[in-house]
Structures are given as C-alpha cells and as structure tokens.
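Objective 1b. Sequence-to-structure analysis of ITA2B protein.
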Amino acid sequence: QGQEKLSCNPKKENGTHVVLCELGNPMKAGAQITVHMELSVSGLEDMGDAITFHLQLRSKNSPSPSNASVTVTVPVEAEAEMELRGNSLPATMVLPTSWHWVEGSRRLEDHGIKVEHVYELHNKGPGTVSGVTLSLAVPHLLGDHVLLYLLELGTEGGMNCSHHPALNPAQV
C-alpha cells in the first residue's frame, strides 16, 4: 500500500559482491511485495556487452519450502564521444616559383618548406575509451610526383603508431 525505502547492505561472499536487503519482518501469510531497485555499478569497461544479476528471495522461516531465484541480464553500452582536432603550422604556405625539387639531396630545404600537421584526439566522455585506432591518410604522391614529403611521425600520451612505408624515403 505505502512505499518504503529498503535498508540494503553490500557484502562480499565467496568472491562475489552481494547486496542484502531486508524486506520486513514479520510478514503475513500470502503477502505480496513489489520491489523496484536501482543499482549503480562502476568499472564496467571490461565486462563485455552484458552484466548478469542473480536475484534470490530468502526466508528466515525454517524450513523454507523454496528460495525462489531469478537471473536478470542487462545489456551494457559504453558511451563516449570522440573529437578529432587538427591544424597545420604554418596554416598556409606558398612555394616560390623559383624552387625546384632536388632529386637525391639529403638537405631538408631541397625537399620543400616544412609544414607540421598536428592532430589531437579528445574523449569528451562520459565513458573511458581504450583500443582506439586512428587511421590518417596523407596524400604524399600526385601521380608520379611527390606532393608531400613525409618526414616524421610522432605521438604523445602513451599512444603507439605504425609508420607509413613512404616515411622519409631519402633519409633526410
């Protein structure tokens, strides 16, 4: 008839987490109770795509004819919004008309004007992210001509990257 808040206590039994809620005592024979529970569970990043709860109703009466139990599986969906930011330094660049590519040179200025491209990948949350792969396609050839001479690739923040085969082919 009325609504009451349950008193629940978390415990750890046999390596599993248990929450014990007292529904009331004594109960009259044939009493029916509806319980709505809201659970807050953290650390679900590595739990897969679902979490399973085992719910059991136990009576302290002895002997208890049955300890009814039910298993509830709840899908887990991680949510995180990723944002990619990028810029070039300098933002614009014009090669002088007198400049020419010097084949076989090991001097940086003979391969063009240095342009640095910086990309930042941000997790705007709310969840954490792991195992992210960013594939960046950089056009380095235009037909048979070098468009961009890829000199180096670097990362910060504990990320790994695989190098492009066309990275610094003349070892400048």
